[in-house]
Amino acid sequence: MGKLYPFRERIVPVIIGRSPFTFEEHRLQVLRCNACGITFEANLPKEVPLCGRSQPSAQAMASFMHYHMGVPFENLSLLQKSCHQPLSASQFWDLVEPAAEAIQPIFDALYDRAAQCRVFYTDDTKARIHDFYKENKKNRLISRKGKKKAPNERVAAYTSGILGMSKEGHEIHLFFHGRKYAGENFADLLEKRSPGLDPPIQMKDALSQNKPGKWKVKEAFCNSHAYRQFKDIRHLYPQECDQIMELYGPVAKSESKGKLDHLNDEERLKFHKKEHFPVMESLKKTMEKWVKDKKVEPNSSLGKAVNYFLKYYAGLTAFCTIVGAPVDNNKEERSLKKIIRLRKTSMFYKTEKSAGKGAKLQSLLVTAESCGCNPLEYLMILLENPTCVEKSPEDWFPWNYKERLTQEMSLASDNLAPEEASEKIPEGFLSGMLRRLFVYPRSLSQKPAFA
Question: Do 236 and 280 lie in a common domain?
Answer without folding.
Answer: yes
